[in-house]
Amino acid sequence: TQDYYEVVTGQLDEVIAQNDLWGSANICVSGIPERCRSEEGCLAFAGELNDLSQRLERQGKLLSFHPRHMDIIPFGGRNSLELIFENTRAEMQLVLDIYHLVRAGLDPVDWIHRTKGRCDLVHFKDFQTGPDGKEALVPTGQGRIAWEPIFRACAGSGVKYGFAEQESWQKDPSECLAESYAYMVAHGIEP
User: Fold this and answer.
1) What's the rounded Cα separation, in Å, for the pair 83 and 86?
2) Which of 22, 72, 113, 163 could in theory staple to 104 by disulfide, Cβ–Cβ 3.0 to 4.6 A?
3) DSSP class of residue 9?
4) Are residues 44 and 83 in contact, defined by beta-carbon separation less than 8 angstroms?
5) Distance CA 37, CA 34 (A)
C-alpha cells in the first residue's frame, strides 16, 4: 500500500491491519511533511523513517519511501533525497518514480544504481509536453523519457518489480495499460 507519510503514521494500526488483510508486507509512504522541508528537517525526517521502519519490521512489514519531484529540495550542492537515503537504515527501501526523478532534474539511471539493494520497486511513468506547454502523462515509451538505459539499470541493479503508472489519461486507461505493457515486453521487461 502507499499513502502520504502523515496519513500512514496517523492511522498506523489500521494501515498494518489493512496490509495484513491483503497479505502485503510492503508499506510505502510519500511526501515530506511541511515541517521537515529544510536540511535539518530532512535529517529529522530520516530519523522518523528509521523509527517507523523498525516498528514495521517488528510487525513483519517493510517500509518504503516514494519521493516525488516536489520532495526533492536542493540544499547547496546536495538535496533532500540524498540526505534521506544516506541517513536511513539499509533495511528501508526507496520506490523510485522515473517521472518524478526526471522532473526534479535527477538522472534516474544514476539513482537506480545508487539505490541498488534498497530499491525493489520502480514506477515507470512517462510524460510529454503538448503544444500548449502543458505536461500530460502518457503510456510508457510514448513520452520524453529514454527508457532503454533505465530498463538496463533496473535489470543490473536487481529491481524486482516495475509498475507502469499513469494517473491521468487522454484515452481509455485500459488501452494505455496495454500500450505500456506491450512497450515494456518489447524492450525485454519480463511479465
Assistant:
1) 5
2) 72
3) H
4) no
5) 5
